Amino acid sequence: MDFIELSRKRYSVRKFSARPVEAEKIASVLEAGRLAPTAKNSQPQKIFVIKSREALERIHKATPMTYNAPVVLMVCYDSKASYKNNADRHFPGYDGGETDAAIVTAAMMMEATDLGLGTLWARGYDSQTIYDAFPEISGLELVCLLDIGYPAEDSEPSERHSLRKELSETVSEL
Ligand SMILES: Cc1cc2nc3c(=O)[nH]c(=O)nc-3n(C[C@H](O)[C@H](O)[C@H](O)COP(=O)(O)O)c2cc1C
Fold first, then answer.
1. How many CB atoms lie within 10 A of CB 129?
2. Which residue of 6, 46, 96, 143 could cross-link 101, Cys pair, CB 3.0 to 4.6 Å?
3. DSSP class per residue in 34-82
4. 71: CA distance to ligand 1 center in Å?
5. Residues whose CB is less than 8 angstroms from the CB of residue 162 and which lie 6 or more positions away in sequence, other chains included
6. Is the entire prediction scored with pTM above 0.85?
């Protein structure tokens, strides 16, 4: 499958099947994230793989945005490790950590899609509830949850999936 085809295939899955995800597939997803570029190669990402029954119960209780996915990656970054640009007058104290974690997450999403898995990038919750449920991430910056699993048989893309702006609205040639 070429990359454009893969990009068309990906959509936000909000209904997962109970089928367990093979450990090798999770390993490949994490490897795709490991290979992603980060500012000055700082690799500040810290990823927590939520897959034990106990941890899944905690995350499902903390937010409905997991849609009962059998695996949830909690993607954070360490602001002590991330790239800072202190010479930037427009963004004083620019921190590349969130961008880095987002690039890593996007790479993991696409690898998961290539492996026949569905994903949902979730950020619509009060992050304090996640910090309260997971003391393991204290001191880190939470960027998103990446829900992963096999899509349920009747999973469908939402209407929003097909709403993409024309390139003329988002791209300017200079
Ligand atoms: C930064 C970010 C945050 C998102 N947060 C949520 C969320 O909290 N809940 C949700 O259901 N979808 C969330 N999404 C998914 C988007 O709504 C979805 O990607 C967009 O509507 C396009 O649909 P598609 O992914 O099916 O193509 C998020 C996506 C991104 C990139």
1. 12
2. 143
3. HTS--GGG---EEEEEE-SHHHHHHHHHH-GGGTT-SEEEEEEE-TTTS
4. 17
5. none
6. yes
Residues lining ligand 1, judged by CB closer than 6 Å? 11-12, 14, 65, 120-124, 157-158, 160-161
CB-based contacts of 41, cutoff 8 Å, min separation 6:
none
Query: For residues 150 and 71, what is the distance between their CA atoms, to the nearest angstrom?
Result: 10
The candidate with the shortest Cα–Cα distance to 105, out of 157, 32, 53, 159, is: 32
pLDDT tens, 121-171?
999 999 999 999 999 999 999 999 999 999 999 999 999 999 999 999 999
Query: Residue 140: phi, psi to the nearest 5?
Result: -110, 165
Give distance in angstroms: CA of 122 to centre of ligand 1: 6
Contact 65, 133 (CB under 8 A): no
Question: Which atom of ligand 1 sits closest to the CA of residue 158?
Answer: 26
Closest by CA position to 126, among listed 71, 62, 74: 62
C-alpha distance from residue 170 to each of 6, 99, 151, 167, 173 (Å):
21, 19, 31, 5, 10
The superfamily in CATH containing domain 3-170 is: NADH Oxidase (3.40.109.10)
Q: Which amino acid is at 117?
A: L
